[in-house]
Amino acid sequence: MAIPVNDSIYVPTPARIAKAEPLTAMEKVLTIELPHGVSLGHRPGQFVQVSLFGIGEAPISISSSPSRSNGKFELCVRKVGDVTGALHALNEGATIGVRGPFGAGFPIEQFKGKDILFAAGGLGLAPARSVINQALDERGAFHRVIILYGAKTPDELLFKDELEAWRQRDDIEFHVTVDRGDTEWQGNVGVITTLFPKIAVDPHHTVAITIGPPIMYKFVLMELLSKGIPEDEIWLSLERRMKCGVGKCGHCQINNLYCCVNGPSFTYAQLKGVEEAV
User: Fold this and answer.
1) Which domains does the chain have, with CATH numbers?
2) Which pTM value belongs to this model?
3) CA 123, CA 264: separation in Å to the nearest integer?
4) Cβ neighbours of residue 8 under 8 Å, at least 6 residues apart?
5) Could you tell me which residues are beta bridge partners of residue 20?
6) What is the pLDDT along the chain (278 residues), one digit of tens a residue?
7) Are 142 and 116 within 8 A, CB to CB?
């Protein structure tokens, strides 16, 4: 059964850290297990509010796809504050609080029958991974699957085992880049937009999903629009000071839009002209 809505919105549900796996010096993947018989019931692109008693609460994107839930879900946590720092210090078996899932997520059913292009930067791969793996688990429902991923350095690449698995698949077009290489790096060097010349798209048959730091959106949008992809087929995910998760506190408000309720996924058509959106 799913978490009862009235409880999950306002009251954290106790959950157990079933597995804690370091990815980089700053990121760790936590596998979260809810009480027996309870499932998160999330959609790709949604997030949860994670709380630790006496420390606080933080919004974290769900990194695992619904198709791979098995009663558990994954969070990729970057150590950047009190809550996330405390999460990094917890061991397997520790208890945390979870509210959610929140947000509209990505309407992946609408994307079926089309080419799907992902452009993820840095930590943006964590929420993008939820949609990517959902699409891969339903691979026959899509035509081309193109994944572009960029990180600052090779050491900051996330989910390296999965990146290698994607590279080896012949039904995925996968390209990766780093801003700064090292002595062992033999791949592309440059920001993520340097990958766009490597691909060709059918603009009338393509939906694009881009997730990453705000500065990335400006330049990735220019590339997507220059390829003729319609504004209502370009999707972005915004994480903007989300706090309550239910559209009450106003921290994530952009004009009349609330990221926690109306998003965090939006089309560019929805955000175009909205001050401070992108």
Assistant:
1) 5-102 (2.40.30.10), 108-237 (3.40.50.80)
2) 0.92
3) 15
4) 98, 99, 100, 101
5) 30
6) 344 444 557 889 999 999 999 999 999 999 999 987 678 889 999 999 999 999 999 999 999 999 988 789 999 999 999 999 999 999 999 999 999 999 989 999 999 999 999 999 999 999 999 999 999 999 999 999 999 999 999 999 999 999 999 999 999 999 999 999 999 999 999 999 999 999 999 999 999 999 999 899 999 999 999 999 999 999 999 876 677 777 777 777 777 777 778 778 899 998 887 766 56
7) yes
